[in-house]
Amino acid sequence: MEYYIIIGNAKQGPFPKEELVQKGLTENSLVWCAGMSEWKKASEVADLADLLQQMPPEPPQSMRIMPRTWLLESILVTLFCCLPFGIVGIINATKVESLYLSGQYDMAEYYSREAKKWTIWGLVSSAILLMLYLFLAVGASLIPFFLFKS
Fold it and tell me: Quick one: which of 46, 44, 43, 2 has its CA closest to 20?
């Protein structure tokens, strides 16, 4: 019996049953042959069970590199710069490692980006407030110079 297989989102075939392994057949590959009403996973087709048992198991997905937590930076922003932004940064930063270790890589990256964003916002807002303070302090110190100029 000859089978069609989906490879890279494209239908290919027909191939003899024995040739499917060379085409990259896995348990999750979608296959179809004459007599089937719809495409099925290879693991659901009884005729392919012997092929799947001969194949080595799929290698585990490689782990991604853990994203930066931004925890230290968030703590420093909280202590020395801007308390509200730093706290939000700490909350997001503490979630990164636990999500990564539980295999939720996309969520870990999301919370890493959020921690970075709030940490940078804290630094920027502190810099703006410092510049505003310096401008007002210098301006206020110059008022007597201009008012009492003789």
Answer: 2
